[in-house]
Fold:
Amino acid sequence: VWNLFRGRIGGSSDVLDADSHKMSVTALDYRALLTRRRLYAGRGINANDSFEDGLLYWNDAGGLLELDDGQHSDRLKSGRITPDGVTGTTSITSDNFPASAGTTYRLSGSMRCVTNRSVTLRVDWKNGGGGTISSSSITITLTPETWERVDEDATAPVGTTQFALVFLTTGTAPATDLMWLDDAKLTTYPTLASRLRYDDFEQVDNAWDKITDTQ
Structure:
């Protein structure tokens, strides 16, 4: 199931449960929504993006990664890392998964920390031998005890055959600075058919374009 998050003009309300995300949006018109449409969620290319299968496909460095079923932004679980307090970089890294050079992808994830730490969500583009060609990343300062979601679009460079996701913080985080990661994934960038303007156009065609996109 692909749920669309459309940038809103007015206020919105969300209802989330284990199976769905429902959003009520107040907006001026479809055109304003379409100019800021964003893919909110979907199945990641990388496996176990939301830690529902435990810690499978994820690795830690500079801290201890554990499964947390009491704190999550999506579904029922998340990955929590406790810094060791002595290493300069604390990170959670995924295994390598297939990617294609020249393809545009969307990197997204939800992050949380007990303090306002600066954190980075990154995708490392790799060649067939596992060497990193380059990286695309998002760095933000988290609001304490608050889940924050990020999204970034990036194109895999020439030579890419695989990728890995990395969630990290630098600066020797103390052991008290617990951090969480959830719904961390790489998805194929959506190609949508809807027009931004509908001049002298049949309303039924307008509607079907949008139905096609959301399906």
In short: Confidence is low (pLDDT under 50) at residues 31-42.
